[in-house]
Write a structure and sequence with these properties.
mainly alpha, two-stranded antiparallel ribbon, 4 helices
Length: about 80
């Protein structure tokens, strides 16, 4: 199996987990699923929404910039 084939397989695998390759630049349009975030962190979606002060009605998907902003606000407030 060549390097290009392995890279392609890796991208499919990472995509299935809701991840993206970090060697590529990210954009503000990159979407983050709260469900996937909950699975990866082990925290329930409701807990994440409550701690990051997200509306109960908010979509379960947000862009990376919004998530960073919410996490930084949480860290500033609590630590």
């Amino acid at each position: 199996m060549g390097k290009a084939e392995r890279s392609e397989d890796k991208g499919v695998f990472m995509g299935a987990l809701g991840l993206q390759e970090v060697s590529k630049p990210t954009t503000s349009e990159t979407e983050v699923s709260l469900g996937t975030l909950a699975e990866l962190t082990g925290f329930p979606v409701d807990y994440i929404k409550r701690e990051l002060l997200l509306d109960g009605d908010s979509d379960s998907v947000m862009n990376m910039d919004e998530l960073r902003e919410k996490v930084l606000s949480y860290l500033d407030t609590n630590f």
